[in-house]
Amino acid sequence: MPTLIRGVNDDQIGDIIRFASHNLDVVKGVNMQPVSFAGRINQEDREKWRFTIPDAFKCIEEQTDGEITRDDLYPVPCVVPISNFAEVKKGMPQVKFTMHPHCGAETYIYVENGKYIPHVCSVKQPSPPLTVPV
Question: PANTHER family of this UniProt entry (predicted)?
Answer without folding.
Answer: 7,8-DIHYDRO-6-HYDROXYMETHYLPTERIN DIMETHYLTRANSFERASE (PTHR43306:SF1)
